[in-house]
Every structure is written in structure tokens, then in C-alpha cells.
Amino acid sequence: MSSYDYDLFVIGAGSGGVRASRFAAGYGARVAIAEDRYLGGTCVNVGCVPKKLFVYGAHFSEDFGDARAYGWNVGASSFDWPTLRDNKTREIERLNGIYRDLLDGAGVTLFESTATLLDAHTLEVDGREVSAEYILIATGSWPHVPEFPGRELVITSNEAFYLEEFPERVVVVGGGYIAVEFAGIFSGLGAHTTQLYRGPLFLRGFDDSIRRFVVDELREKGIDLRFDARVRRVEKSAAALNVVLEDGSEIATDLVLYATGRRPHVEGLGLERAGVALTDNGAVAVDDRFRTNVANIYAIGDVIDRMQLTPVAIAEGMCIAENLFNGGDRGLDYTNVPTAVFCQPNIGTVGLTEQEALTAGHDIAIYESTFKPMKHTLTGRVERTLMKLVVDNATDRVLGAHMVGPDAGEITQGLGVALTAGATKAQFDATIGIHPTAAEEFVTMRQTRRTSEPNR
User: Fold this and answer.
1) What is the mean pLDDT of residues 439-447?
2) Are residues 21 and 121 in the same domain?
3) Which one of 4, 204, 225, 265 is separated from 196 by 20 to 30 angstroms, measured CA to CA?
4) What is the pLDDT of residue 453?
């Protein structure tokens, strides 16, 4: 046993930090973890979990209307924001308790306090100094709002989950998945919603077919999407907030939500005292085994800014526990990581986009299908589904699978297994579909939409 107080000290009790600490303790390590905000991190408290609960809530506005086509007379309906908000909060509190029980059950010492590095092996936490052989930084990320006049008048996704009153009008600024999701949430719950993005097309990094398709779907649902729109300032009047754009136009609104990205949360950790290096964008710099430039200090999750996804942070946490305390030597393969965007309809994606495949030098075939979901053959709703496969012509291997439509995340999880296993288009074709489902379209697409030679 080492002479340090702990074998591993984790700063940050989000998904990755909790997983690393629990499994390290299971391997016999003496482990402590510090959290100064909330157990479970972003995902549980102001991210995936409450956001998806809100998405469920927002979709009822369509479900009530669709029910009539199936013979249900639902009568008048109305939305009560405090009920959704407070039920969500109770669920978060329940999950906070589960995380606390998991740590306690694993024998991990929990400090509900800020922890700062004094040197490579020493931390100040809860008013005293403790030492650790290894230190893991798992402090996640934090919403970033750029500087502009009226910045103090806007909120971020953190505050959106706890609004005192539900607004009648909302402006969402941003073009990433968080902005798109919240625009759908506010619109579905009844707010007149405008989404502004400074570029020509949002969801940068996703397949271009997906990006263009989602534009049409969101506009059909009544969201006012405005591209190449830059905010000059936000002003407060007696009756509203006024968003003034660079072209001089103004939008009167009750709430402005900025979802313009998240930055690694490194402030106040004392990283400079321990000599820990950061990247140009402020993330903690690590190698393929999550080691920083300081031999005994590691980092995982959003704070290293590789893939800001909860399951990725959990997998990275497992690598830390295995490598430090179970004789492992594991890194993480970031290819074919499936992910979803819970806009309405959902996005599911895994593997390479069409452009990424071409840039990587693949000669590709594209299979693409759009159709009306079976449910809406009775409802008359114009919502459509898109499915797309990116296939390497030389090997027949499926390089990417992309979808927009109901339950896209659920369907894409299974496709992630197939792509990880190296499935070919012939194997997709040989798979019997489940009928009638939307998912069967992925194994029945036979007609090549187009072929493309690699970018050289």
C-alpha cells in the first residue's frame, strides 16, 4: 500500500468519474471523489436525462392530435409547465441518490466540496490537504456564451430546465445539437420559437443529407429557422427582450437561450500548479491512455474534448480503472460510436458521413430512402423519415448509417453493433427485416442513389 492517503482521487462525479472511481475501488484501490455541484454530472442534471424527459413532454402536442385519427377523442388539452419541470426535478433527485448509493456501496469516499491541486500529488478539499498516488480530472464541460452587449440577459441550457415561467416566445441561438433539441422542445411545448444560426446550415459535422432534411422537418413543425443570422445585441424593454441582428432586424421575445457550444471546465482546478498542460482550445491534453504530461495525473470525459458523450466518458473511466488497478493497457476506439440527437424527429448516426468517407479516400456508393412513417398514413401528418447508408465500393463494407425519424436513436444502437463488427452491404441485404417497421428499410434498400469517387 502506498504512503498516500488515497490510491486514486477523482475530481468530478459525473458519469465518467463515478465509473472510474467505482471500478477502481472494486479492484481494491483506496478511492476518493470530489464534487462541488451535483452527483451525476451534466447528463443527469442538466443534460441527457432532463432533456429527453422534456422531449417526451413536447411530443404530446402532436400525439393528442394524432390520436383522433385512431378513434380517440381526447378532448381539450393544456400544458402545465410547473408539473413537467417539478416532476423532472424529482427524477433528477432520485438519480442523485442512486449515484450517492453507488459510490457508498463501492467504498468510495465522497467529498461534496471543491477540490484543487496544490501539486502533482496533493489536493485541497473540504478545508484540508489530502494526497493521492493518482489523480483523475473528470470535471466535464460548461456552456459558453460569447461576449456581446446584453449577454447578461440570456440563459443557457443549464437554466432552461428550471424556468419559473414558461415563455410564449423563445429565441434559440446556436446550430449544434443542443440548440436544435431545445428549439424542438420549446416549440412542442407551445412557445413560438425562432432559431438563429450564424452559418448557412446547422448541425455541422453531421451528414449533409441529414442536415438538409432536418431543416425541412423543423420548419414544417413551425420553427422559424434563420441561417446566416448574427446577433449584434440583446436589449430589454418593458414588455420584452429584443434581439437585434447584424442586418438591423429585430426579434421581440420573452426568452433568449444561447446554445453556442460548451468548453472544458478547467477553471479553479489548480492545474497550473501541478504543471498540467492544456490544448489550444482549453481542454486537458492527454495521450491515448488518458495520461496528461504529468505522469500520475489523468483526465477523461468532456474536459479532454474528444467526444462529448456520456457513454464515451463511461468507457474512458473503465479504461482508467483497468489500466491503473487491474493490469490493463486499454485505450478507446472512437470510430463507429453511435449517437443520437433528440430533436423531433430524432437523428441517429454511426460511422462516417458521406463527406468523411470521400475525404478518407473511399470510393463509395450511397443508398438513401425517404418515406412517410406508417403511423402517419392515418394521421395525415407530413413528417417524413430519412435513412442513408454509406458503402465502400471496394470492400462492400458499410462505412456509415444515418437516420432521421421516430426512434432513430433506438434503431441506430443496433446498427452500431453491425458497423463495429465490419458488416458489409451484402450482409445487410441478407438480413431479414421485421415487418412492418421503419428499421427494415436499412436491410431492404437495394437501389444505389449515387456513387462518388474519393477526394484526392
Assistant:
1) 95
2) yes
3) 265
4) 77
249 and 294 together in one domain: no
> Per the domain annotation, does 18 fall within a domain?
yes
pLDDT tens figures, 320-355 = 999 999 999 999 999 999 999 999 999 999 999 999
Alpha-carbon dihedral angle through residues 435, 439, 442, 443, given to the nearest 10 degrees: -30
The CA-to-CA distance between both ends of the chain, in Å, stands at: 56
- Could you identify the residue written with the cell 465509473? 19
Packing angle, helices 48-67 and 177-188, rounded to 10: 40
Which SS3 state, helix, strand or coil, does residue 369 take? strand
239 and 289 share a domain? no
User: Which three cell numbers, joined as nine digits, stand for 308?
Assistant: 462529448
Domain that holds residue 201: 151-260
CATH (domain of 270):
3.50.50.60
Output phi, psi for 420, to 5 deg.
-60, -35
Tell me, yes or no, whether 333 lies in a domain.
no
Residues 276 and 289 in one domain: yes
Rounded distance, CA 55 to CA 407, Å? 12
Q: Which residues are catalytic?
A: 435
Strands (E), 329-421: 339-341, 347-351, 364-371, 385-392, 398-404
Handedness of CA 214, 220, 221, 222 (dihedral sign): positive
A 10 A CB-CB count for 226 gives: 14
Q: pLDDT tens for residues 82-122? A: 999 999 999 999 999 999 999 999 999 999 999 999 999 99
Dig out the grid coordinates for 136 from the structure: 483523475
Question: DSSP 3-state assignment of 341?
Answer: strand
Do residues 24 and 320 touch, judged by C-beta distance below 8 A? yes
Residue 75 binned pLDDT confidence (cut-offs 50, 70, 90): confident
